[in-house]
Amino acid sequence: MKLLQKKHKRIIIAKSDVHGWGAFSRYSVKKNEFLGEYTGELITPDEATERGKANDLQLGSPYLFTLNEQVVIDARRIGNKFRFLNHSSKPNCDSKMVIVRGDHRIGIIASKAIEEGEELFFDYGYGPGQVDWCDSNKPRTNGGTKKSKKIGPSS
Asked: Where in the numbering of this chain does the SET domain appear (predicted)?
């Protein structure tokens, strides 16, 4: 319901100690509380591959999020502040795919209590051979995209 109402928690963008820019909670958040929606341009996986290569050369970090087998969200140009959540293998947020009025959407949920000013992280779903920013402070390899965890239909 909060996706329909666009009731996002306030977050701020600031330099991260982990990598580049990060998203930080403006207020304390309870476990399982809805933070907001990851938004952006809907593109095909083939287009995402091309944009990922170009973004890696230009920026070193694409804002691509795999929604499902047919659609990837590119938040680079028209995404919101949630694109600045950095990766961690020990995140404080989860991404959840929900179906809202027939559309697939990505919600960001607190996986544990988060203090005011704490940086927000979620697991990008990196596979073997990809580097963890949080553990090594090195860029990932293999041009992977963020992936959501699917949950049941919602309205």
From this structure: 9-125
